[in-house]
Amino acid sequence: MDGVKLHDLRCFDAVASRGSFQAAAQALHRTHPSVFAAIARLEEQLGLTLLDRSGYRVSLTDEGRLFHARAQLAIRELEHLRTYADQLASGEETVLRVVLGDVCPRPAILSLLSRFFAERPRTRLHLDYEAISGPVERLMDGEADLIFHRANPSDPHLERIDLREVAFVPVVAPGFLPFEAVSNVTPEAMRPFTQCVIRDTARRPSSENFFVIDGAHSCSVPDHMMKKELILHGLTWGHLPEWLIEDELRDGRLISIAGRHIPGRNETVAAVRRRDRPHGPVAEALWRHLEDSPKLPG
Known about the structure:
Elements: H1 6-18, H2 21-28, H3 32-46, E1 51-52, E2 59-60, H4 62-90, E3 95-100, H5 106-117, E4 124-129, H6 134-140, E5 146-149, E6 158-172, H7 187-190, E7 195-198, E8 218-221, H8 224-232, E9 238-241, H9 242-251, E10 255-256, E11 265-274, H10 281-292
Parallel strand pairs: 3-4, 3-5, 7-8
Antiparallel strand pairs: 1-2, 5-11, 6-9, 6-10, 6-11
Helix pairs in contact: 1-2, 1-3, 1-4, 2-3
Organism: Mesorhizobium atlanticum
Pfam families: HTH_1, LysR_substrate
Keywords: DNA-binding, Transcription, Transcription regulation
């Protein structure tokens, strides 16, 4: 295969796909003799007869048919490689690393990302999920370009675009409690019942305590969807984002026990990035896209 030229492979692909030297020449904006010479040169280098020229129209030989399938793959890979090199030369990122946190409303965030990356097919979105302090840790450790999560607004290392307020509601399934679920339920009354919490995915977990009742038995889950399932089945109780349980609260499959003793909580979901790190052109374009987008519906 030494000395095989991409030009010759393209000429062979064009003839194989279009069925004639003339059609291939027109498609490639080449002359008929130059396409003919390219394929003859390729056949000589390979030691194969790729085209049957005995009929009115040229056709692939058995060897040519097999070789054409591989040649098409090679041409595509070389085109991808050239595009990749162009991106590197221009400074445009080939991958953008984004982390979704456990508090963010995924459908709305994914819709934003979908619209943006649909117009940038040369940059691949690498998407991860982290919980509690995991998203900020990934960002600070240089393992994410952008996160969608809550973040300390006073942290000088971070800049943020606030996207939406998310209300968290303490809920139980009907019949979970042996007493009436009312708004004056106290933490002491809930201590005998298993509380469901989200696991912190950070390698260096923080000491933050979100809604956890001291002394209560708890079980941990990776995300709010799993937490919701456990609560719906009457296995646990806990706080869930209101956007995730609107239907269940409306039709009575879940009951809010929010009150002055066990309050709900509002979290601000934001796009967050490092202020003290350079950002590539695609990351900057995404940031502007988020700034210009209307605030997510709450």
